[in-house]
Amino acid sequence: MGCSGSTSANGNEPIKKIIRPKPWQHTEPLTREQLKRMQDEFWDTAPHYGGRKEIWDALRAAAEADLSLAQTIVESAGIIIQNADLTICYDERGAKYELPKYVLSEPTNLVRES
Predict the structure, then answer these.
(1) Would you state the pLDDT for residue 11?
(2) Extents of the domains making up the chain
(3) Range 89-92, long-range pairs (CB < 8 A, 24+ positions)
(4) Which of 29, 18, 34 is nearest to 66 (CA)?
(5) Is residue 57 packed enough to be buried (19+ CB in 10 Å), middle (13-18) or exposed (0-12)?
(6) Fold held by 28-105
(7) To the nearest whole number, what is the mean pLDDT of the chain?
(8) In angstroms, how far is CA 109 from the centroid of its own chain?
(9) pLDDT tens for residues 13-64?
């Protein structure tokens, strides 16, 4: 038995459907440029904290894609989703991958530059 919205890959493990992260707010307002710098810095350094580079690459592609494509990317890479918003995932070997919300969506206090 799985939760609603889950499907089974091989009959044993349910695959969670990816959802958009809940709205969130950064500690201080950010411009789009500041957010982009934070995202780039995270993706550049993430592989140095463990896990496999190809999984980090797949997670980045999924984070930057629409939900249906993200689901396909995650399933194809064999990524196990703990949190449906992709904040915590595992690879098939059990390595943990934690993604901050700022790489998955924009904060509610994003400053629109004029």
Answers:
(1) 46
(2) 28-105
(3) 89/59, 91/51, 91/52, 91/55
(4) 18
(5) middle
(6) Bacteriocin As-48; Chain A (1.20.225)
(7) 88
(8) 20
(9) 567 899 988 999 999 999 999 999 999 999 999 999 899 999 999 999 999 9
